[in-house]
Amino acid sequence: MTALRFIARRLFLPRTAARSLVLGLWTAAVFSGGLSIGSSIGLGGGLGGGFGGVAFAQSLNFGSGESDLPIEIYADDGIEWQQENLVFLARGNARAVRGEVTIYGDELRAYYREKADGSTDLWRLDAYGKVRIKTAQETAYGKKAIYQVDKGILVLSGGRVRLVTATDEIFADKQIEYWENKQMAVARGNALAVRANKRLRADVLAAYFRVDKKGENKLYRIDAFDRVKIVTDTDTATSDRAVYNVESGIATLTGSVKLVRGQNVLRGCSAEINLNDGVSKLYSCPATAAGPGKRARGVLRPHRKERKKAPPKVQK
């Protein structure tokens, strides 16, 4: 905060789109672990080509890159520094820029703490209005974004939240979250992942990441909860829950499983669907202490060729 010590207790900069305030908050004091939106949420190679590691890419990490990069804040209607409340307010087409990541909003609020040694610690960043988080590869849209630096949690909400990449889109009615410490991303409320003509829908989608041999976070599993629906060009599968293994390309469906292709319908307690080769296995319900099991069942309707109608007889 050395660069700001000569600024008055309440700072209003003139209305200028080009006006910026460079926050000289260096190293770990700048957004601590950073505004991270994780490293790829998607459906790997699944759904016959699937959602190949989309969304929430590492490039959306506001704290990544060189630790000495400054954060620049721009605002058409000025920047207010409230020393009493330990917060910066930027209003009017506001944006915060660090490296390749830019956060847009009608209003930005940056909350900080003063440490005993005189340094500062930025612990929360809020964005309101027409919120966008943008990099060269992805853009996330919402009406509100809150990043809690201490807990490593980012929540994007407001309207139909959306994340767009070159090949994929993820939507959620309630919110999209990234839990940095748990390496987990969650889309809540009529969540939908789309790639070309392939769709995965559920009330909640949760994606899990782990570090590979190259030191990069990679998506390895997606859990889908409640009203699960997987749709491709030829098939529709529904269930209560699904677990998708990105490495194997196999989706395991459980609870009221239903597989539909054309007029053919299969039902069972669980199923394994290989989204790479299209092979499906349907399983019966096992017997339990509560009662006997239930068989898997299906209705197959063979395609019938239409008979050619004989020409009408001509009366002589």
Number of H/I helices = 1
In the CATH hierarchy, what is the superfamily of the domain at 13-233?
Lipopolysaccharide (LPS) transport protein A like domain
The biggest sheet amounts to: 6 strands, antiparallel, barrel
The whole-angstrom Rg is 26 Å
Task: Give the DSSP E fraction (strand runs of 2 or more residues).
Answer: over 45%
Predict the CATH topology of the domain at 13-233.
lipopolysaccharide transport protein A fold
If classified by CATH, what would the architecture of the domain at 13-233 be?
Sandwich
Q: Which shape, going by the Cα principal axes?
A: elongated
Instruction: Give the % helix.
Output: under 10%
What's the CATH class label of the domain at 13-233? Mainly Beta
Task: Record keyword descriptors for this entry.
lipopolysaccharide transport protein A fold, mainly beta, 6-stranded antiparallel barrel
Q: How is this structure best described in words?
A:
By secondary structure, the chain is mostly beta strands. It has one helix and 19 strands. It has one helix at residues 46-49; strands at 20-23, 71-74, 79-82, 87-98, 101-114, 120-134, 139-148, 153-157, 161-164, 169-172, 175-179, 184-195, 198-211, 217-231, 236-245, 250-261, 264-274, 280-283, 297-299. A hairpin with a 5-residue loop joins β5 (101-114) and β6.
